[in-house]
Amino acid sequence: MSAALIRGVSRSLRTRVISAGQRRQASGHGPEYNEPGGYLFGEKPTPGVKRVKEDWERPYLWGMTAAFLITAVGLYYKPSNNISDWAYREAQLRLQERGEMPEYTSVPRDRA
């Protein structure tokens, strides 16, 4: 390859990289990083003054609590989808249909 061809290819690659970088930087709307100020959510606590909650905070808290409780109760009472549980129920149903109910007796284990 000739040196002119290599220079031409590298120049076109450089302009593509630079133009892509310029497009990305042009879309910014402010500083990319906020320096930490030491206060949660930027609210400076003042001694002796109670924090005023915004209108959305109380419904959000109640809504998230209700959603958590509904999910917990729903998961607790969720039917079992385990294959072994299904097979056990199916076997019990088939035995009842045939009129056979096995009786299990406990067998003492030998302690060796």
Automatic annotation (TrEMBL):
The chain crosses the membrane at residues 60-77. It holds the Pfam family ESSS. It is found in: Mitochondrion inner membrane. Keywords: Electron transport, Membrane, Mitochondrion, Mitochondrion inner membrane, Respiratory chain, Transit peptide, Transmembrane, Transmembrane helix, Transport, Ubiquinone. Its main location: mitochondrion. Residues 17-46 are annotated as: Disordered. InterPro entries: NADH_UbQ_OxRdtase_ESSS_su (IPR019329). Signal peptide: none annotated. It is a single-pass membrane protein. One of its GO terms (cellular component) is mitochondrial inner membrane. Accessory subunit of the mitochondrial membrane respiratory chain NADH dehydrogenase (Complex I), that is believed not to be involved in catalysis. Complex I functions in the transfer of electrons from NADH to the respiratory chain. The immediate electron acceptor for the enzyme is believed to be ubiquinone. Belongs to the complex I NDUFB11 subunit family. Complex I is composed of 45 different subunits. Interacts with BCAP31. This is NADH dehydrogenase [ubiquinone] 1 beta subcomplex subunit 11, mitochondrial. It comes from Thamnocephalis sphaerospora.
